[in-house]
Predict the 3D structure of the following.
Amino acid sequence: MSPPPGGDGRRATSGSSDRQLLENLGEDRILWGTDAIWFGSPQDQIQAFRAFEITPELQERHGYPALTPERKAKIFGLNAARVYGVNVDEARKAHLGDDVSRARAEYANAGTPSFQTYGPRTRRDMLRLLDFTRGMPD
């Protein structure tokens, strides 16, 4: 589906779509979602959104809202937690000493993070994988 037209009749860009979502729905009603189950890790998209910033100049000139760390946290998961009734503080406490938390801590202290994307990156890669595995996992 194409984004709605911008105010000047042209198609909206990603940045203006983000602005329209924030203005029309509000930061409390936007959830992060991907098609990762079909096309591999969305890590590149996650890293891009985490790094994405709207300069104060563009905020002033075009009325873009700032994409603060707090807004991004809501979009990435806090809003979904609220919708699904997850108590975030309790969930964080429950996972403090698990294997994933320990691996994250080790990774954070490693000093040389890798943003390698695993899994198929294109439709063609996905079709090759499905052909190779005959549609079965592993």
